[in-house]
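tool=predict chain=A
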Amino acid sequence: MELIDSHCHLERFYRQGELDAVLARAAEAGVGRLIAIGTGKDDWPLYQQLAAEHPGRIYWAAGLHPSDVGADWEEQVEMLPQYWKNGPRPVAVGEIGLDRFRLPGNAEEAAAVMVWQDKAFRRQLQLAKELDMPVVVHSRHAFEASLAVIDECGFPWERVVFHCFVDGAGPMRMLNERGGRGSFTGIVTYKNAPEVREACRGQGLDRLMVETDAPYLAPVPHRGKPCEPFMVRDTAAFIAGELGVSPEELAAIATANTEAFFNL
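tool=predict ok
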């Protein structure tokens, strides 16, 4: 049974000298491929390096995370195209989007950050169009605003994934009706997340992708521990139960969906 962790962050494991062990545990669990998701100029070079060192195992995406957007956002975003010129190219632009949860306490500063986030999101959607790439969207407390930006930019919805989807069945319908999709983390296994399970059942198998968002959001039975890519197997097995299919069938479908979306 093969699975792809469609969204993880490997920088911490690398800096702590743990990456080889993390990759070994993933491979042992059948998670042979990972997509490392960039968040800013500090991790983009590392993920390109890791993709070069682990061809066919580590893929990567490059984007400016909304929580990393500041006054210099334009300078960072304009650095992105260079990563498509040499070395292992990113398989997506991301993660990009809007985050209305982590904002400065000062109202004036928060308003400025919201404007920067909006502009950075729009510019990166334009860049993804130019590069013919899918996008990985981070949307926290900003679902309808994120939808509006993507609609207004005319970005093709079939190339949009809202990662770590937690917004419930209604928003999932809005996303799916447009042609977009959501991917699911270990949150779907938490007792206090029935709305995430509803959204997962609502979307079904056709567009399903699974992820860890490691090192965050470990699924049950690992909750409370640092999350690792191997744990996507537990999330996938749980979702299989929710959707009434075998873990093997779900893994095959999720893998095929991920390969198609990211053109792996």
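The chain has a mean pLDDT of 98. The chain has one domain: 3-262.
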